[in-house]
Fold these 4 entries.
Entry 1:
Amino acid sequence: MDDWKDSDSDRSFRAALLEALDRRPHVVGQGPEGLLWLASVLLLGTNLLLVFAVFVNLIGGLGPVNPSRILWAAFGMDLVGVALFGWIFWDSAGRSEGPARVVRRVAALLLFLWIGLTAVWRFALPAALGTNIQDLFTAFLTGPTDFPARFRQDLTAVYEIFGLWIAAAAVFVAAHVLLAIVRRMARADDWARGLPVYAWTLAAGISLVATVFIVLSFLYVLAGRPLADDF
């Protein structure tokens, strides 16, 4: 009889323990969301590298480190960082239910779409023009006088680069709006509650506006108007 009571007590204890563990807070570090810090570091590092590239360009180089190498490193870092974010939210959707699952999935898909669009306008289309995005932007910055004729011969590809650049920036804003919704829909113990999504959305919006203005200024160059006339 005592053995029966002990066995029943053990089962009750295990059931209570499992229930308590199931209700534990979902903290960052127990799954792919534990890589949020790495994704954030990569995206922050991208911005810092771009600033560093400008500084190195102003001082005329820094030994083997030149603006070109820094720029290409930055171009790769943000793609990896956003890919991590997309994977994290896609995976976390599997542990959600109902509308929360759908919103996380769509947000992840938009982040992956941004990667695809960005890879096309940064790498594929410039390669089709026989150049790279750095040389193309340099040509626009030097003004219409020295603008290479070969770029004018394939304006369709140039316009496609501009269009995809703006589209990617808009997709990035949409993804961050959904991430803000993810935060609002998350449970009180969900790691998504601690994400600075409103700051991210503001930054993405500023990036979209800046992209539009940059494209407009480049269109002025194509029309034969120097960038200096716009400032």
Entry 2:
Amino acid sequence: MKSLRLLLAGWMVPLLGVVLLAVGFLAYRTADRLLVERQGAARDLEALRRDERVKERLEQLDKELLDQAQNLARLMQFQLDWGKFRFRDLHILGMLGVAMADKGFVMIPGWTAPVGRGPVAMEFFRRAVPEIRFNDQELQHHLDDIAEYFQVDTTWGSVFRSASLGMEEMAINKQAFFPDQVLHHEFDSTSLANGVAVRRVRLKAPAGRVPFFAFSRRGPGGFEGRPPGRPPAEPGRGEPPPPDRPRGEAAPRSLVFIQCAYPLSKLEPALELIRGEYETRVEELESASRRTRLALAWQLAGLGAATFALAIGGTVALVGWSLRPLQRLSEAVSRISERDFTLRVDPADFPSEVYPVCIRLRETLVQLERAFLREKHATADISHELRTPLASMLTTLDLALRRPRAAAEYKSFLEDCRMAAGHMRGIVERLITLARLDSGSDPVRPQPTNASALAEECAQIVRPVAKARDITLDVDAGAPCWLLADPDKLREVICNLLHNAVQYNKPAGSIRLRVAQGQDTVLIEVADTGIGIPANQLDLIFERFHRVDPSRHGDGSSAGLGLSIVKGYVTLMGGAIAVESEPGRGATFRLHLPVKLGLENPGRALA
């Protein structure tokens, strides 16, 4: 036989080792997680510093690009050369063409107006626009490599591109680029048409000095001022330059759009240096974290080993001390015998863990003693119940054998013997039924069953017995109540309850059998006006061999087994049974059996 002390110690020591190992592992994992979080925070901080440095470098580049764009706006010059156009000749030629054209009088105002826009005039104004110029020496002095690509656009269509752009163009929507602001700049990263990734600034600014209809003298026949034949400006159609304004300077200020771009590939070495410093710092942090985790693992291992060694001795002593109450309880149980079921210990003297065991053991012993006494009484009752019909049968046979008799007399004796044998058979069958319920060898065979019709059938079976005792049996079945159940077992349940109601009823009493359909259950209720059941026996009536009134043993066919069979069958079919009673006022048994929803047309299934 194994020792409980050694068994507990044998389990506790490995369990303690596992617990210590788990605690050490959890402690290590927790510390490791904290270290990882700290390392992650440090890495994030380094990444933030790296991003800040990259951002500062880009902001520095943006500032330099903006400075270059502003320098371009300041160094920009405009030149308008009217001498290369033969304005007067074209104008006169257009006038002659209009005069000879069909309905030319309609077109004459357009050519004679100060701001005429005829076909020739449109071509003229399209080409006669100020051109953008830069002084090469000023560009070399004020610009550096930051403005490697730049482009200048104007509202009147002139464009100037750096030599590095060639024929490529940096697109800009001049109408949509902050039309409500005169001065504005914006940074972005984009790619040129040749695929070069650049950082770009777009600057919108007013033009500094724009010649507006200014003419330069180009040798003989040249002219200055407004074109020949053009009248002075009308009020509201543009004012002439003031007298103190230098000739050739524009009256209104127009807008220019300057774009400066720098290849990001040239910025990459500086950014790579920043990233390299970041990677170096991250590697240093990871190396320090690994050293810290290794030192922590060794410390936890040493501490766990020392704790485990101390815990082994404490576990052995603790197990021995904890088993003392069980030893006392074992000694008390060993004193119990078949004649004395008393547990001679006080549960209050035991620890709280053993206290429920003592209480439950004492209750079990009380129930065992009660069952033992009930079995003794039942054995006597069954012996008496079997002896009575057996003695009657033997007496009848003795009478029949005393002398020769007629066939009718022998038949009467045999019928009496058959009735006595039937009583004995009923008792034996009930005992067999209970044995099958205990072993689980009595399966349920469910099928659609009309509980109302079955109740009427059971009432017809029991009604002659009730009538013989002057007891009225009424059935309130109502509409058909269908459920999925074993009809044979349900018939046995209802008949047992009705027989029980007849057996324990008063003379001229009544029995009411009611069947009702619930939402999920079918209710079967048997109420009688009998002697009732005392409150202290309501929990005992379903126990085997128990009788409320032993003097009312009836015909001896049940021997206190009927309600036990009812309880077993109802439980087997998934239902529940309850009883209400007052002494002297009868009893009411209620059965609730599940309908087993899903049977849409039980009548058809039953047919």
Entry 3:
Amino acid sequence: ECMPLVYTPTVGEACQKYSHIWSKPRGIYISIKDRGNVRKILQNWHTKDVKAIVFTDGERILGLGDLGVNGMGIPVGKLQLYSACAGIPPSQCLPVVIDNGTNTEEYLKDELYMGLKQSRVRGKEFEDLIEEFMIAATKTFGPSVLLQFEDFGNSTAFGLLEKTRKRFNTFNDDIQGTACVALGGILASLKIEGAPSKLIDHRIVFLGAGEAGIGIGELIAYAIHERDGISVSEARKNIWYLDSQGLITEARDKAEKLPHHKHRFAHDASAFKGPLSSLEDAVRQIKPTMIIGVSAQPGTFTKQVCKLMAENNKVPIIFALSNPTHKCECSAQEAYDWTKGKCVFASGSPFGTITSHGRTFEPGQGNNAYIFPGLALGVIAAEAKRIPESLFYDTAVCLAEQVTDKDYLRGSLYPKLEKIREVSLNIAVGVADSCFKLNIARVKEQPKDTRKWIQSKMTDFKY
């Protein structure tokens, strides 16, 4: 009942109105004008016992765009889920917003807007501020403090993650957390009769080639590599993307010099005949087994697209992952109706119970909350030095293994959210064990019973 209020979709509306409904300080605000003084600001926090920091620059809040410092609602909400879902003490959680301006004219003209009223600062000046912040955080709260990137823009998110991921205990939830929960659902689908039983047999088309989409594709490619022994670059050939300009292809890459994260998925499309500018074109020609929407463009999974998926597949798999609900590519009702109840559907925001073609469905929500609380608990407990890609794959496998026969019968690829504490515990145990196995744990001695050790660190909020 509370999840949609603390998290998507309600948190999106709260962020849009944040400066107008603000009532008391939450977390730390660091602006571009604070360069050179970031550590002093962090040292003002009331405790040094901080284990997890979620920080955003507010540039890409959910599917709502640049909300500037109003994006503080996201780190606040995420850390509440760290506590509720994984028992991480609230006192050990710190939300942070990095204010480097906003390009949203509405906020620049709003007299109640709490952030800097200037255009966003880009380039080296901004990157240096992020570097200073992350170094200051580790010096203030310890080298293993978890630093979660949240809702940074596409133009900065990939570069910042690549620059920092080997030096800090850090991850980007929009790139890696979303990828992990999506892969978990895909792995769970392999057990469904009529759907592909091997990951390598999937042909996947993405609508949207931003942080979430590319992150999911990269983790799928890594998973194919792990499970089927082919190279990651070869595995990427199973995955196609459409952005605002149409299908990403080799020809487009040569003509436009696509960004690096798109370049890796620019495939040879010369064998296809006819236009490839729309999703319907791509579904008709590529004949995907799965479509994944991460575009924040509502209505783009049209009736014709869904009908084509049903014609080409015994069990079409449709993931409409954009948040909040009004940004979803199609509703659960539409997906079931248009595929005559054949599809397996998952979404980023929750849908209720659906009745279609004589069946009742409770579609699963591909909610990052299945991932980041347990992942955080595991790396915090082990005092991880960094978070390698293999941990996200292992976590996705762990999530898929927790889907029960009852979940499948109700049409879901995810466990019920009521089991989130159990799911988070299982993930945390696996993550901690992997940290010791990979020799990236700062805790010197691995406990004999990892589960009991992790449980001892979880706060129970029942009263």
Entry 4:
Amino acid sequence: MKVFLVDDSVVIRRRLKRMLADVKQLQVIGEAGDAQTATTDAILEQKPDVVLLDIHLLDGSGIDVLERLKKANPTLMVIILTDYPFPQYRDKCMEAGADFFFIKSTQFDQVVPTLKQLIQRTNESAAHPPTQ
């Protein structure tokens, strides 16, 4: 599973890369600290399976990035990681197509188990393709 990281904090991106380094069948294929790079690299060049996306970016809104990513690839999995624990942000992200919404201060540790579940689901789907 290919993962792309989008967060304006270099510290957060480094922490995520360390956390994800030991997850089997998972590869961090790119990262961005701003909306422009995220939409260009993530959509056009890298073709990730999952994007870990912050709401607040240096040059724009992560929600706008989410909408652009989902428009370009509706099956792309997007996990929101944010410092904004407000329900209105969660609701807006989920309406825009986010698959998961985690608060960095309290739910950061849920990222790896969530990705492992997604990998397991992908493996099960590949092992048992739908019959026609």
